[in-house]
Amino acid sequence: MTAPTSSGRAGRVRLPVDRGLSHSSPRPLGGSSARSRKSWTPWLYLAPALVVLAGLLVYPVYQLGLISFFQYTQAQVSGGEPTTFEGFGNYSALFSDSQFWQVLLATLVFAAACVVSTLAVGCALAVLLTRVRALPRLALMLAALGAWATPAITGSTVWLFLFDPDFGPVNRMLGLGDYSWTYGRLSAFFLVLLEVVWCSFPFVMVTVYAGIRAVPAEVLEAAALDGASQWRIWRSVLAPMLRPILVVVTIQSVIWDFKVFTQIYVMTNGGGIAGQNLVLNVYAYQKAFASSQYSLGSAIGVVMLLILLAVTLVYLRLLRRQGEEL
Amino acid sequence: MKLPSRLAVLLAAAAVVTACAPQTSDNSSSDKDEKTGTLRVWLFQEVGNKPKEKVVDSVVAAFEKKHDGTKVDVEYIPVETRAQRVKAAFNDPKSAPDVIEYGNTDTAGYVKDGGLLDVSKEFGAWSEAKDTDPTAKQSVTVDGKIYGAPFYVGVRALYYRTDVFKELGLEVPKTMAELATTARAVRAEKPELYGLVVGGAYTYGAMPFVWANGGELAEGKGGSYTSEIDSAAAQKGIKAYTSLFSDDNCPAAKCAGMGGNDTVTAFAAGKASMAIGGDFSHAAVEAGKVKGKYAVVPLPGVKAGSVAPAFAGGNNIGVLKSTSHRTLAVQLMESLASKETQASMFEAMGFLPTFGDVREKAAAEKPYVKPFVETLGAGTKFVPASPAWSEIDASLVLPTMFQEVISGKKDVAGASGDAAKKMDSAFGSVG
């Protein structure tokens, strides 16, 4: 934790450079004149990154927010009708749409399921990697990297084929006849979940594996000598030591799985039977681009952004409370 | 995590400074009317596009010869991405074409977007226009003004397997009720075939059932529309269509997600004894396994001998408002949609002409179009000429309704009531 006097600034600019500086300067925060001079230095170093961020992140987000307050459809974009200011009109239309709440709930549950499954599979395989010989490890690594490198659209198409009711090998192997996986709401979500886990576990696995390798061998050896089981080692030794890494992969997974688009769009053909498999991102796309209601789509985008920020902030706050440093 | 504060400030700023509205392109009609230069044309890229290109090339060559100093630049755009391309053209008039081909259900939407040029005067003065069939003319008309020339029409009819019917000793169905019983009879004898292959997302294959039962999509009252999809008659049609999604005809688990192309593909691959396909599906079916083993009849209506009203699909040719060659562009539109071009386009691609007389001649030459011409003659229906239709279409209101009924999520009254509400709010929002 940085000194209390700097916490305000650290709260605003929490980037490694900043933290590094305040750590390395030997108690620089006492004298107020020295502090005011010093406080510009990090900004100077940050300037190039901030300029890029402003152009690539802030400006689009600004446009997104701006558009969400207007009546902005194709007719307005191409100049057929004047653009009118709607205030929170788009938001109230969105919040009074029962489908939106249904989609939001489905998105949250689906994303949570994906995150939990991805982390479980990724961590389990990372531990497995440390326990097997070189050749199987190489094979597992290659398989994981293959899954990682596969474009989402290709992966989705292949999975769809694997589970095809007429030609799919899965149904044949399981003896399911011509059972259609994409017809039922839950089975369709389950199918997509499998694909999402398949294409996102390698990131978790590789990151956690690297983390485990960095854990000193004597710690693990000591635990083993004390007679700890594999599960106990993970829970009491590895997981606490890997916490910063687990935080990063969890946040990454939350963000990815909350924003899942390609898999749903391809595998359930744009949202499933009667829109039963819509998630927020696909819903926003259907509103914004398929039916050209850019302003309503922007409103959905803003809502998504706020939810993700809230989730991430709450998570970070919880970690702070536990005295962990990210 | 410095976003929230930044975002809050920006949102506040956006709310306060309403003067800085999002960008809008200046798409007012160009005042220029140059008599020479390059005309850009966008046409749809069809499956097997070569014959179309040939016809267009000859039209273009004749046009360039007639108008000294003009050049015509034709580009074929993929049908799947047409929406993005056309939107982009409306947004950036500088790189937009002068003349485009567009789907007739898009007319009202494009007009509202401010993209299409009002050609009522030129169309009225065009010598060939008087023979245009009324439904085709309706598909270029919005609020009494004309925004293009019909290029071809497409209607759907009933494809059936002659070999299967003969083997099972079945008659060609004469009513909608018979259609269902015949379909089930085939499936009972040959479980590997769908009786009548139907699709939950196949709106234009489903609508004839609604129309035949006396239902309507919407009722126009003084320029604005009100949805009629939840009327008693329409509900009867929805019920008739959705009852076909059962294990004894076309299992819901497989058919609920199908669209029009999927059903035609299934029929062409020999997996169905009947399908509702268009004249434009002819080539695809001919290329499939069932070549020589099928015939086409108009889709039967409720009463024996009647024909279920078909949806009058098809494409139009229009001129973009932003063109700087107004006169030339309109003339080019007329040559591309002329009787002569349509006749050769029918020869080349099988597109049904929009002129009554040209169509009759075509039917006499090629017997396979007879059932489609008959269907057209029996009266066709069109979607509401409201800009809201693009939105209703794109937000999948009708497929959702059919799929909700098919999958048992809602009953017919509930699903059609919800669909009507969505349609009404779309109609309402465009005023």
TrEMBL record, chain A:
Pfam families: BPD_transp_1
Family listed: Belongs to the binding-protein-dependent transport system permease family.
Positions of transmembrane segments: 43-62, 100-128, 140-163, 183-212, 233-255, 294-316
Taxonomic classification: Bacteria, Bacillati, Actinomycetota, Actinomycetes, Kitasatosporales
Compartments in which it is found: Cell membrane
Key words of the record: Cell membrane, Membrane, Transmembrane, Transmembrane helix, Transport
InterPro entries for the chain: MetI-like (IPR000515), MetI-like_sf (IPR035906), UgpAE/MalFG_permease (IPR050809)
Protein's recorded name: Sugar ABC transporter permease
Location of the ABC transmembrane type-1 domain: 104-315
Species whose genome carries this gene: Streptomyces lanatus
SUPFAM superfamilies per UniProt: MetI-like
Mode of membrane association: Multi-pass membrane protein
Keyword Endoplasmic reticulum applies: no
From TrEMBL, chain B:
Domain of life of the native organism: Bacteria
Keywords, alphabetical: Signal, Transport
Family matches, as PROSITE patterns: PROKAR_LIPOPROTEIN
Pfam families, per database record: SBP_bac_1 (PF01547)
Residues of the signal peptide: 1-21
Family: Belongs to the bacterial solute-binding protein 1 family.
Protein name per its UniProtKB record: Extracellular solute-binding protein
